[in-house]
Amino acid sequence: MTQTLPNPGADGDRAVGYAGACDVAIVGGGLVGTSLAVALQDTPLRVALIEAAPPPQSEASWDERCIALNDASRRIFLALGVWEALRAEAEPILATHISERGRFGVSHFEAAEAGLEALGYNVPLRAIGKALERRVSQAPRLALFRPARVCGLARGDAGVRLDLETSGGRRTLEAKLAVAADGARSALREWLGIEAQTRDYAQQAIVTAVRLSRPHRGVAYERFTPDGPLALIPKPGLAMSLVWTTPQAWVERRMGWSEAEFLAAAQEAFGGRLGRFLELGRRWAYPLTRVLSERLTAPRVVFVGNAAQTLHPVAAQGFNLGLRDVAALAELLAEAADPGEAELLSAYERRRAQDRDRVADLTDLMVRAFSNRAPVLAQARHWGLVAVDLLPPLRRAVLQQHLGHLGLPRVS
Ligand SMILES: Cc1cc2nc3c(=O)[nH]c(=O)nc-3n(C[C@H](O)[C@H](O)[C@H](O)COP(=O)(O)OP(=O)(O)OC[C@H]3O[C@@H](n4cnc5c(N)ncnc54)[C@H](O)[C@@H]3O)c2cc1C
């Protein structure tokens, strides 16, 4: 492989004139791939980021969702120098309240018991995207291929060769390590013949915002109902993000309701704890599947974020977990002589497997346990919530999991 450094060009396709070899090629510039590019920018590694979508042109380019970042993610973003840019738009989550409609069992956590100012922060995805984008635009050594789609991969002992379709035609890029950050339907995973366990939940998440008649006081609510969980997460002022998991058969109807009908139904499902639901934002629907890659690495390739594991959003863990993938990988890469060496890949797999299996299993358990109407399970759920609330060791374990601290590498 050649050793030529990137030759950044103008905005958009900074890879103009790039000679075709790097140390680490990140395939996919979503939140996770871009976070990794930022994490590696102060290392001596020559990094390329390849993203199929064109650069965001305006505010409207971003997904309208908010992302609930846990404390571990705040720490990682702080270490990456991204947190300051998010702070102004990050609404603190001071407490969480988990309950089931029609039952009195409740779990309640407060930031103070963890010795923290906040358990986490609800941040517009747009703000995270913009903050990462700014950092990427200030990284002169990063070779940015965008829009460019990776359309083929070949592996040798010393590295990989990626085939790229760019606006200027086809080109190849060699790398010692390819990082698959290409999302739930990872093409890299498919080309490498790595199996994935897939579960279609036959549900969609309807995401919107509501304005309330009472202040939320920084409390995030997860309310399980027979018709799917409904989460309300603090936004500035009297607003909250609303994520309503909806059985597939009802999605069209719920999406088609008038604002008044939707508000009345959401209010009925949630109850009166936050006063009246007064106003509704725009609605978006996201199909929900779980995709777990059977491997986190293959020779000269590593999987991060949704390409490694795509989870149901019920516990707001997907991006938080992906960011811990990034932190662990960045820490290993900073010390590696060869970024694609087998020892590094096994170390990554060892470090990430436990955290990701635990979070994936717990999230799936929550979805399935709370989607089941059998009376025996209703009793188990009820006592489960009571036990989590009252038993100190269980409470501590759940809190640590919630904060993301159990999977936090040394870097943060
Ligand atoms: C309704 C909902 C609410 C959520 N809420 C939360 C939350 O509160 N907290 C939380 O932690 N997580 C949450 N998540 C999960 C979170 O959104 C995802 O985990 C995260 O966005 C995944 O990012 P990613 O970069 O791994 O993948 P993606 O966002 O899928 O990015 C993959 C990128 O790869 C690019 N790409 C794909 N193929 C190629 C190719 N061949 N060549 C070049 N580029 C390619 C794509 O264009 C894309 O930009 C939520 C998810 C949903 C659906």
Task: Describe this structure as you would to a colleague.
The chain is α+β, with helices and mostly antiparallel strands and 412 residues long. It has 2 domains: 21-59 and 130-197 and 291-367, FAD/NAD(P)-binding domain (3-Layer(bba) Sandwich), CATH 3.50.50.60; 65-124 and 201-288, D-Amino Acid Oxidase, Chain A, domain 2 (2-Layer Sandwich). It is 33% helix and 30% strand. It contains 11 helices and 20 strands. It has helices spanning 31-39, 71-79, 83-87, 125-137, 187-191, 248-256, 259-270, 318-335, 342-370, 375-390, 392-403, and strands at 21-27, 47-50, 66-70, 91-93, 95-100, 106-110, 120-124, 143-145, 148-155, 160-166, 169-180, 196-212, 219-224, 230-234, 239-247, 277-280, 284-293, 297-298, 301-303, 309-310. The strands form 3 sheets. Strands 5, 6, 12, 13, 14, 15, 16, 17 and 20 form a 9-stranded mixed beta sheet that branches. A hairpin with a 2-residue loop joins strand 10 and strand 11. Helix 1 (31-39) packs parallel to helix 4. It is globular and about 60 Å long. Bound molecules: flavin-adenine dinucleotide. Flavin-adenine dinucleotide binds next to helix 1, strand 3, strand 9, strand 12 and helix 8. Flavin-adenine dinucleotide is lined by residues 27-33, 50-53, 65, 67-68, 149-150, 181-183, 187, 205, 207, 243, 286, 305-306, 313, 316-320, 322.
